[in-house]
Write a structure and sequence with these properties.
The complex is a heterodimer. Chain A contains 23 helices and twelve strands. Chain A is α/β, with parallel strands linked by helices. The longest helix of chain A is centred in the N-terminal third of the chain and has 24 residues. Chain B is globular and about 60 Å long. The chains are: A alpha/beta, B alpha/beta.
Amino acid sequence: MPGELPPAGATWPERRRRALADPAMRAAVAKSTRSLAVKKEAVFATYPAAEAMRKRAVIARRGSLARVDALLDELTRRVEARGGHVVRAAGPADVGRYVLDVARRRGVQRVVKSKSMATEEIALNEQLENAGLHVRETDLGEYIIQLAGERPAHILVPASHKTRQQVRALFDEEAAACAVDPPVGDATPELTAFARRQLRADFLAADMGISGGNFLVAETGTLVLITNEGNGRMTTSLPRVHIAVVGIDKIVATWADLADLLQQPALSGTGQRLSTYTTFITGPRREGELDGPEEFHLVLLDNGRHELLGTEFVDILACIRCGACLNVCPVFRTIGGQAYGTMYSGPIGVVLTPLLGGLERAPELPKSACALCYACADACPMEIDLPRHILALRRTEVERGMEPWSDRLTFELWGRFWANPAGFRFTGRIARLGQRVYVRDGRLKGAPGLVGGWTATRNAPPLARESFHEWWARRRASRTGS
Amino acid sequence: MVRAQLFVTCMVDLFRPRAGVAAVQVLERRGVEVEFPGGQSCCGQFAYNAGHHREAAAMGRQLVRAFEPSDAASPSADPPTVIALSGSCAAMIKHEMPDLLERDALQRGRTPATAARWRRRAEALADRVVELSEWLDRQAVPGPEGVGTRAESGGPASSGGPGYAGASGSSTPLKVASHTGCHMRRLLGATEAPLSVLRRAGVEPVELDDAEQCCGFGGSFGLLEPDISAAMADAKLANLATARGDGVTCLVSADLGCLMQLGGRLDRQGDAFPMLHLAEAVDLADRHRLTPADIERTARSQEADPDAR
């Protein structure tokens, strides 16, 4: 079944305009992505075991994807044997319904969440809030953008587009609304101190914790959670009920496979050897244990993933959401994450958004949010061939006739003329005559049709008076003539 | 004499034939018998990257035909190397064309045998294609013709003949900014070749900060998204401004697309800075004319024949 993603909100031209008109955001994004990319390079350069481990991790991931269904069955049996509940969800509505059922049955009113792209994908917060639940994001970045009423602008560092001053303003507003003391300054420790104080109260009052998951280990039915803030542990251990919403692609067969994978999100995402907190969760609290939730539910989210198995796009399911492709992408650095209109921004988002939500959901992303520079292909630790997928999506758009008829006509004529030598030379001569209309001060400052996009922001030299073809012919004639 | 076929690319042919002329002279000085197959037009990458694979394949087939050795040529001889004046176009031929031509033939209802034949013909071309700076870099070993011997022997005076003749007699080499296009960098993996070619031309190549970031040209992307593309160019130009402050005299690239993007954006901003195709820079060096004045003059003229202006 195809998946469903929340709508983009504003149109692409509007999102693009807003992004380009926001120099503070663009500077913050350029700075943070550059710094993360540099850290990634550094950790691989100074940690000799990393590269071999990464290669084994790729094999482990592909191997698991090749037998997803069998592994999910095994995982389900293991989790249930430990007293957990497992449910398969086709899409957003299934998850919302299930979570609300549990909430109603257990009298839940307050929910805390740790960072989860899967729940962003299905707009779970909105579904729960519409049903009257209070939902609090507890990852610092997610907390910030929740207060700002935005979507994460980066897979890994959701609020990296915000300056400290902007964060302080949001916290001041929140302090006023809650009638508590505002942060004492806009230094990072002062801002985090405010967030910690606020969130501590939320953790203690919560009836339900909702998390995502970085991996699922089939052989023991274990949920693996990697965080840098410790909020994941509180979310999954303090409230009475823990629900994990995890994409079916996160499955790995064995702990041996996990051993190679566990460090990958940190290595490529933040340039750490390992994230600060690694949490393994196998079922709810057992007899005699002191902490942990009374109930553990694992929601396995499909939302268009299963359909990708066996297609040319299957490797996209190997993504570990490290954000390395975003950090090196020149388009992402230029427009930031919000402009993509989807929680999956950057190169992975350009591919994943149309694959999960349908090409009609984001037809602009493959052609407009990628310069085909191949930086993402080099950066991806899971060796996902993102440029090839982007090329395939562009081809699909052309085949489905999703571009303006004038563009299609341009390419058809172009292909026809340039596929033979006489046609090529002919178009050169015609263009040389035609360009006169647009040449000013010896430069091309305008052009018709598609090429007008060039002259919108750049000049070009006019076509040369004599092409190389013509020069060569003249040279040869003069040589044989003499 | 070594034979080589020159693939100038559609952009050099139409917008900067002078780079093609420079390449011919550079190659002939190195004892190469240069051939220019007249059937060549475009590698089809622009259409391919825009999703128009049928049109790209039509151009690709024509390119394959144009460079195939004719039966009349001595069948026993190895087909000549194809020297391309663009890392991006070379990458298109080497990385995409075999798949593209095979897939397109099948889509047009040709038999699998015909499709496989197109793949083999494209692969044969791909094997022969070398980007210019990579080719020049491979000629580095001192040979009987004295090619590439300058760096060690030091100074232009030592070499009047073919080869890297050096820039000027001054002891501190001229600084030039070197920009390597994304496809050259990542698909051909040719990050060192242009730098070492420039070094042996007697200049000091300087890579810009964030060198690995795209200039924003991006084929159809640059036309569909003029504002994002220009913002990317501006980031690159900001780094170029730093290098200009450090005294680089021009920007050199083996890809005309990047040069047109950066030069066209700079020109729109009313700023001017010389930008040279790598073939032009090496040609100037060969003629002991890689000097600020000659760089300026060369960058200003696009014409194959400078007297045409």
